[in-house]
UniProtKB/TrEMBL annotation:
InterPro entries: YlbE. This is YlbE-like family protein. It comes from the Bacteria. The lineage of its organism: Bacteria, Bacillati, Bacillota, Bacilli, Bacillales. It comes from Caldifermentibacillus hisashii.
Length: 79
């Protein structure tokens, strides 16, 4: 693997862990250093950090908060 790619991956802990979990990327990046963007996208999908994943997390948080709020309100109305 090229030293500049190695340094890029070394600087990001998640990328280090991802490449350890998916060792095929050693071979892919060694053969084609331009695949770093594909590597980055795959790592983002792996760690669920893509925009749709983030939106889904926010949506789930809002739904949970709404459910808790309605549950608290219903408990207050019973008293």
């Amino acid at each position: 693997m090229r030293t500049e790619l190695y340094q890029i991956i070394k600087n990001k802990k998640e990328w280090q862990q991802f490449i350890r979990n998916e060792p095929i990327w050693y071979k892919k990046l060694s053969r084609n250093p331009n695949a770093i963007k594909e590597f980055e996208q795959t790592a983002l999908k792996y760690y669920q950090k893509t925009l749709p994943d983030r939106m889904n997390k926010i949506s789930n948080g809002v739904q949970f908060a709404t459910m808790m709020l309605s549950m608290i309100q219903s408990m207050n109305q019973v008293d």
